[in-house]
Write a structure and sequence with these properties.
single chain, mainly alpha, elongated
């Protein structure tokens, strides 16, 4: 079974790119540049993020592993 930590890394990566694409899409809209491609990319990333969050909920909670 995949560890929840792997999912957390992917979720963080997708959330970062969702934020970046949101800023680019808003900036493109405000400057009257074509924004459809950016908006579709944002939609794809948000859907992937939503799917990863749903999968993450099915996994057991993380165990705290501290290396001393």
């Amino acid at each position: 079974m995949k560890s929840a930590e792997d999912f957390d890394l992917v979720i963080g990566f997708l959330a970062f790119w969702a934020l970046v694409l949101l800023v680019i899409t808003v900036a493109a809209e405000l400057t009257a540049q074509p924004a459809l491609g950016w908006a579709l990319g944002l939609l794809a990333v948000v859907l992937a993020l939503w799917g990863m969050l749903r999968l993450r909920r099915r996994l057991p909670a993380r165990t705290s592993r501290r290396i001393s």
